[in-house]
Known about the structure:
The chain is of the alpha+beta class. Helices cover about 65% and strands about 15% of the residues.
Amino acid sequence: MERIGVLITICLCCLCAIPVNAQETYDSFQGTWRGKVLEIISEEVKIIPGTDTQHVYQTVRFEALDGPKKGTYITAENDYIELGEGDTFFYDYSIYPDGSEIYNVVELDRKGSLIFLSIIFVGVILAFGRWQGFRSLISLVVSFLALLYILLPGILAGWNPLVASILVASAILFVAIFFTHGFNKESCIAYGGTMVAVIITGLFAMFSVYITHLTGFSDEASIYLNFHTDGSLDFTALLLGAIIIGVLGILDDIAITQVAVVSELYESNPGMDKKEVYKRALRVGRDHVGALVNTLVLAYTGASLPLLLFLYTSQSSTSIILSTEIVATEIVRTIVGSVGLVLTVPIVTLLAVFCLNRSLTDMIRKSRKI
């Protein structure tokens, strides 16, 4: 009994000692806040250690605009981005166990500039497009909200990225076509034809990603996201969904154009047979596709220009450069988008030729005047 009593006493002492000896992990990070540069105290160009690259190092005095230090004046070192007097920026505020306070510049506050550019964008759209321009802006907002509040949370909640992207893409396409161009036969044909093209493009994207063995980990953002989600996301499916979302707008463009061309041909010559209408509309579509494919290639190239310059200056062979996932991914995006674009033309044109006629084009003309 005495031994049992001693063992119980020892266990109780150990259990009581655990909270006493345990130490909580100290979190030095206090938050990210905004500041405004009051003065550049010093500025010099130094060589980044281990490289021959020059970089600007500054000592700045700024006013904290929010957070626990709001209204105070702070002097800090800045070796991230070059700041000027009057600039508003974001900074990380940390307090270390020894009581020292550290301020790290994170990024410039570009909100004001972006709002100004957005106002110009909206003004130009409304001035040129008027009521239809207003409807296109509304559909743009709805599309953005669908991506932000349906697609992204859905993928993080466990939805298959490819299936979710196709479903959300179909909803976005519905809003973009019908809300912008009206609820009429013309819009129905454009929507139906585009959805067929989206499905075919999705299948071709799956085939392309499969034979090139793309994993979806083409940049640092994917790697960080994988760690942040504990590896729960299918990044190959995510890549496929991104490809579909990326080509959606341009497929919408070509579909609406082809239906409008067929409609105008019927209106200009009601006696023209369907075969002739199809041939003429297809001729216009070929010219349009040539321009859009070039636009698609230039858009992807422009977005990847710093990467291309970096690879151009490397010592790797062309075969190795083309085989790197980040380059191969952009090539696959361009090829899949271009193929989807080309396929949309005959599909939508064929549907328009057989579904539109003189009486329907009269209805379309009236709906355009409303």
